[in-house]
Specification:
Layout: H1 24-38, E1 50-54, H2 55-58, E2 63-64, E3 74-80, E4 87-93, E5 95-96, H3 97-111, E6 120-122, H4 124-131, H5 137-151, E7 154-159, E8 164-168, E9 173-175, E10 178-179, E11 182-183, E12 187-190, H6 195-198, E13 205-209, H7 210-214, H8 218-228, E14 236-237, H9 238-244, H10 252-268, E15 272-277, E16 282-287
Parallel strand pairs: 2-5
Antiparallel strand pairs: 1-13, 3-4, 4-7, 6-12, 7-8, 9-12, 10-11, 14-16, 15-16
Helix pairs in contact: 3-5, 8-10
Length: 296
């Protein structure tokens, strides 16, 4: 789902002196408040072949498009670039689309059937299979490193739809056991109960096709999530995309070529019908929208 269906409509006075009709945004804020008041502690459900994330995360540089050849930056409470009317402040090691967000999406996916705060158990071999990672201890260690990065985070989001600021860690706790120095089979993770607030209205979240995402490189992954939040995307400046995705490309020309390649990737998986970067440096795309399926 995405927020295009829930854009605030102009208020019109009701006939016969009734109070003005409440806006869509007001209803969304009320749902979020209801989650807080009732202490809802479970995520919405979605289909097995999908993953879900709040739009604020998909439109920002929270998970950057950095690659493994670039050193990770430590960020201390800095405001990150975010497209739209939300503001995100982050403390922790730089997180990336490749590995970090893929693992987080999978952890959240597993946690959606449990009460938030409860342990979610999994086998590293199963997790690596879902992520299309190779087998072996090196990739088990890599998974452990990602969980450690996600645990040591502070994400503070302010947005109109929340009507307040919300601060969470992306991972509340993780647990693993060792046998004779080797990482063993059964691991456990926990998601912060407050995460329910960010998923509360189930309107300002977006469902992502998992298998399509796994085929993409970092920038294409980011664009897949970003354009997934808009059914009919508006034109957007190349520089805005560059800032919002956290790219460290040395020149605009270099980034523009990376952007062209990434847009082609999205066209190759039939996510985009067409795209164009005009002389005005505006990126315009047309999505291949499909009807929502049951469970999405």
């Amino acid at each position: 789902m995405n927020d295009d269906k829930e854009q605030p409509a102009p208020e019109k006075a009701e006939r016969k002196g009734r109070a003005p009709r409440e806006t869509a945004l007001t209803r969304i804020q009320q749902r979020a408040e209801k989650v807080i008041e009732e202490k809802v502690n479970q995520l919405p459900l979605w289909a097995d072949d999908l993953r879900s994330a709040p739009n604020e995360m998909l439109r920002s540089a929270l998970f950057t498009v950095g690659n493994r050849n670039q050193a990770r930056e430590f960020i201390n409470g800095r405001e990150l670039h975010c497209y739209g009317n939300a503001r995100i402040y982050y403390t922790g090691q730089e997180l990336r689309q490749e590995d970090d967000m893929d693992v987080w999406l999978q952890v959240v996916h597993m946690a959606r059937t449990e009460k938030l705060g409860n342990r979610v158990s999994f086998r590293p071999s199963e997790m690596k299979k879902e992520l299309r990672w190779p087998r072996g201890k090196d990739y088990t260690q890599k998974l452990l490193n990602v969980l450690e990065r996600l645990k040591a985070t502070s994400v503070r989001i302010e947005s109109t739809r929340l009507g307040k600021g919300v601060g969470v860690s992306l991972l509340r706790r993780f647990e693993y056991t060792t046998e004779e120095g080797d990482l063993s089979d059964t691991w456990h993770v926990e998601i912060e109960p407050e995460m329910a607030i960010l998923f509360a209205a189930d309107v300002y979240t977006t469902r992502l096709d998992w298998q399509s995402r796994l085929e993409l490189r970092p920038l294409a992954k980011w664009l897949h999530g970003f354009y997934g939040t808009h059914r009919e995307p508006y034109g957007i400046k190349v520089e805005t995309i560059r800032e919002s995705c956290g790219s460290k490309a040395k020149t605009e020309a270099k980034f523009k070529q990376m952007l062209r390649d990434a847009l082609d990737e999205l066209k190759n998986i039939d996510f985009l019908k067409e795209w164009d970067i005009g002389k005005d440096n505006i990126v315009r795309v047309v999505r291949n929208n499909r009807p929502l399926l049951k469970g999405e």
